[in-house]
Amino acid sequence: MKPHVGVFEVLVVIGVAAAAWVAWSRLRAPAQGARVTLPPAAAQVPGQRSGPQASALPSAAMSSTPPQNAAPQNAAPQNAAPQNAAPQNAAPQNAAPQNAAPQNAAPQNAAPQNAAPQNAAPQNAAPQNAAPQNAAPQNAAPQAPAPQPDSTQPAVAQSEAPAPPPPAPAVEPPPPPKPEHDHADSARRILEAWEDPAALKALAAQLTERGDPRGELLAIQLQGPAGSPRELELIAANQAHWVPPGTKAKAFDRGLPVSVEWESSTRPEHAGWLSVEELVCTADPTTPGSPLDGPLPRLKHLHGLRGSISDPHWRKLYKRVATLQLRELDEAMLKRLANTLPRFERLERLSFTESHVALPDLAAALVRAAPPKLAQVELPAWGFGPRDVEAAAQALAAREVRWSMRLQVGSGSVAVHLGHAGASLDTGATPDRGDLARARELVP
Questions:
Q1: Which of 222, 217, 251, 244 is CA-nearest to residue 233?
Q2: What pLDDT, in 10s, does the model give residues 4-59?
Q3: In b/e form, how buried is each residue of 233-269, taking b as 16+ CB within 10 angstroms?
Q4: Whole-prediction pTM value?
Q5: Which of 93, 202, 366, 379 has its CA 20 to 30 A from that of 233?
């Protein structure tokens, strides 16, 4: 009769075998230099096996019939690993022994379930000498690698500095630009020799040698009559430098502007004003930048002056002008003339373009305040009748003045002359018949 093996005895045997294995493993561990850690599952539930077949162990252990080829009671099978113990050369659970496979790896010389054999690549790992996952095959063409610079180029650039470029051929610097001609200096030198033809001729040669076009113009005007094509060409090309801004040249003499028309604001200090003898004003003299603000040393003839001229400008004319033309004559200007005309030392000719004053009153005021060199007074004859002319003639004859009054009729081809000898007609070579008839009405 076979002895009956109970469940208790089986558990005792398993516990004893497990304790022996643990003791033997601890004695063996210091020699190998590896740390052994019990699996948490074996420490908690004796008899439970780790690995894929752990779930089948409890039913077999609780069976009353021992399994086939099972070991005798209280005996450990020879050369067999205790139940629920790790193989001899296997790493404990959750430990990575030296030269051992990672956790959950199969025992040595054994191929656990779903585990790769020894010397085989881990599951889902690329085999040895194989290309990584998602990589191109070994003999496949590389996927458009980025071009790499030549290995020799950086080395040369880092070790040796690039050779300096060859020096540029020596180029002679361009000659410095010629300085702009000193127009003010040439104008002053011409004015200093204004009345000396020989000095002006020598100065013209000197200026021409320097490249100053004013020298050529001076030589042309000294030699022949004005108006040659070359003379006009020189004036047109250089009058922007020779003529003051805001003006237009009307005449040149000896290389300098002598007659200009003032149209807008100008520069009173410009050298072109030094030679101006005749000034025609089309702008208001009270405009900022008036030429009357400058010296005007040679001014002799002033035309088109408005009645709004300031006292400082008016006083500047006392010793200079010989011809004075005012645009309008009214009561205010007549009063001003009566007080200032005696101060005009060089005034010879006085004219008005418009008159709003009675002719006898003008004649009487001029008789009382005529400047010493006055020779003629001109004004338009329109608005006057025979009685006005007769009264003015009587005023002039009574004082035996040396100056005369000229009343221009119509276009000016016929005029009424008033002087100390009375009234008379002054006609040209071909007077206008209508103007002549009108003049005869004024002079009985």
A1: 217
A2: 557 778 888 888 888 888 887 777 655 444 443 434 443 444 444 444 333 333 43
A3: ebbeebbeebbbebbebeebebbbbbbbbbeeebbee
A4: 0.58
A5: 202
